[in-house]
Amino acid sequence: MTSRRTLLKAALLGAPAAGLLAKASAAGAALASGDHVPALVIGSGYGGAVTALRLTQAGIATAIVEMGMAWNTAGSDGKVFCDMLSPDQRSSWLRTTTDQPVGYFLGVSINKSIPKYTGVLDSEKFAGIRIYQGRGVGGGSLVNGGMAVVPKRDYFAQILPSVDVAAMYDTYFPRANAGLAVNAIDTAWFETADCYQYARVSRAQANASGYTTTFLNNVYDFDYMKQEQANTVPRSALASEVIYGNNYGKRSLDKSYLAAAAATGRLTITAQHVVTAVAPNAAGGYTVTMNQIDTVGATVATKTVRADHVFFAAGSIGTSKLLVAMRAQGLLPNLPAAVGQGWGNNGNVMVARANHIWNTTGALESGMPAMGIDNWADTAGPVFAEIAPFPAGTELWISLYLAITKNPNRAAFSFNSSTGGVDLSWQTAWNQPAIDAAKRVFDTINKKQVTVYRSDLFGVNKVWGDDFTYHPLGGCILNQATDNYGRLTAYPGLYVMDGSLIPGSTGVNPFVTITALAERNIERILATDAF
Ligand code: FAE
Asked: Is 471 a catalytic residue?
């Protein structure tokens, strides 16, 4: 109970908690070569933030290493983050043009030239897919839509059969929701708010076509959003802010779990450092090698630190790439063959429909989705489709959706000795099952509403946004690549704590699942392993 109280207090503290976090991530706190720490966490997203909080609360000094920036300093416009309508260098991770998920309009690219910079959203390109990820202290929580969705119980039992389902739903999902400061929308307000007209239009059409819709919880403070709608506070979700960060309103991890961990006084955060290697240290524990980078990504120093325990929380892609490379390069040769296997895109596919002229979606669209179409029970093609905003600031008559489907295809990571990088075997064509399932729903809606797909938003004459994902999952599956609690058993003291544990699919937006699983695993690790 104490921990929950501390956590909620820290989440609500606002400025003081932010100050503590800034202190924890200040340059003075950065790791130096030769340091020896009891616990080092690679990455500051959901898995890393949960791990850091529970370790520090247990009295263990913890060092987070994060490749992205701390995102606590305003730019010349007085804001930390840029919006979607006028993206600048803060938007993108080391790119010279933006790579927007909806990258076209009327078939013409709407991407913009920007200076190369360690911006907050990465679109990491593999042969058959682009994978969007947050970069910075807070990981994906900085850029995501904040939707906090607990997976369906029987589906969770199917994907992770080694996990005690009752314990997850009785203890760890509620703990995750409390730690993340999840809140529910005021449904009466939703019915009248201008900023959700787009969702009401999509709901009416889905319901009239025979589909069920459901409200979605969020970590964005809906009370703040109400004030945005009333024009009494600076706007964020209502000012086209999402995917490149939110300046207000969103309780990202730096304001929840990480702030609470910083409040213990036992956390340091070393930002703008990329971990490149982990190997056993002859004196005990592990040597962690990292490159300190500047804002154009150039290495300014290389450091080695000794850590008794290392927690991989670099996300599905970051953790899988590191472990596969370490095994191939002989630094962690005894990692099992399952490391690098079982990667999936959570069945992600995006699509948009063109509405009739009388079905206006509104010029003002909240960047935080609040509703989904739930057709998961359709065994011929389960779909859970979030009704996504298109916050262009002008009426466009567009209904946009991110569909989560049950795509059975899985890819593997492999070390490429000629490039020195790690490849992912996913092929774009492997997303056909996702398209097929989404078509069942949206063909029906189009037929019943006498509407058509937009084919100009994902390329030229291209209906389906099938070549990217927001939801990378897997690569280091629980109870296959690790034991049932995330331990890499060949190497005592090495653990995996992030989305790479989940076998490619969770049927809903994934961060609550990642958070709850991390809560479960770290509780057991702290109870049984020697620190
Ligand atoms: P993640 O949050 O990605 O954190 C990993 C961290 O490790 C990052 O900060 C990296 O910069 C860092 N890192 C990686 N490699 C290294 C290295 N070598 N050295 C040092 N640091 C490293 O991982 N999910 C939802 O549930 N609801 C949503 O509404 C939602 N919307 C999304 C919208 C967008 C645009 C995106 C991109 C994602 C969205 N997601 C959403 C997905 C969600 O953010 C994602 O599943 C989680 O962030 C994954 O959590 P992890 O802890 O696995």
From this structure: yes
